[in-house]
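Need DUF459 domain-containing protein's 3D structure for a figure. Predict it.
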Amino acid sequence: MALAIALPIQTGPASAQEGQRRNLLDMFFGDRPRYERYPRYEPRYEPRYQPRYEPRYERGSRYDPRNGSIIEAPARPPRRSTVRASTPREPQPAAPLKAEPAAKLEDARKVLVVGDFLAGGVGSELETAFESSPGVSIVERSNGSSGLVRTDHFDWLAALPGMIDEVKPAVVVVMLGANDRQQMSIGDNKEKFRSDGWFTEYQNRVTQFASAVTSRKIPLLWVGLPAFQSPALTADAVTLNALYRAQVEKAGGEFVDVWDGFVDEEGKFVVTGSDINGQQVRLRGSDGITFTKAGKRKLAFYVERLARRHLGDMASADLLSLDPGSLPTLSMTPSPSDTAVPTQPISLVDPDLDGGSELLGATPPPAVLAETPRDKLVKRGELPEPPAGRIDNYRVEATQ
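Structure prediction for DUF459 domain-containing protein:
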């Protein structure tokens, strides 16, 4: 009885404490139970559904009921191999092979191309223009960043005579000036571009350069500057071209004007224009200064026309080397004594031997030749009478 009476007393407060409800103040300011303060997360992993793959039974086969393995399989007919008949493709025409450049002759006439980066493009495309001419060889000796101003970088006046002695060219092609829009050193002085002293010294250098070629009786072709995308560059190119033309022609050379090939009808710079075949292509680079391959070919086309005139027959593509290996086989004609004359000789004056002296269908001339109005006008200055009723008929007819 004592134990029964004590048990409700010990368990009563615990059950009352567990069953006591917490109000709003207890939730914010009261102490939380341990299990609520640090809840323990126990994830629940549910087994995923595993489908049962039953073996696929084939008709006519015997299987072991314990594990489903095949005991006896039906005999299968041999598998037929089907071969599809393929239609033969039509043979495609082969791409035309590019003609190999003709081998140059030992005595081929040489064209020396000198200048800056623009001259390098002219030289490379001149090689393309004369690749089928065995009598012409192109020698390109350009320096991309050179000019007539910066002699400390490359001195053309000092290097040109040595190049001519080495190459012995038949024609010299020059294209300079694209890098010369800068300050020039003249002795101890420095002249700015476009000053009077700059133009005086530059003119002397152009004259010396041209005279170094023409004094040796070698044709000189000086290629002018084209238009550029920058208006300032274009204006300077116009000024320099006028200087080149005057000095080169005075020295006995020839100025090649390429300006119209790279501007439109209004004289403005163009990026796209006609190539040498009349097709619309891109001629200039994105910087507005350099040329594309088509532009270089068009630039060289102006030079090619004049160069062929100086090179003469050597620029022909049909030129052959007259060596014993290329000579045709000569057949000797028999002498007249070895050949019998099959027929009697025929007279060239009277082939039919009929005594005729007139051509077939010929009519005898009239006995009296009438004088034409043209003869009257030329010989005596007489005009024919105008027809009646025309405005220049001034005859007055008598009326009854």
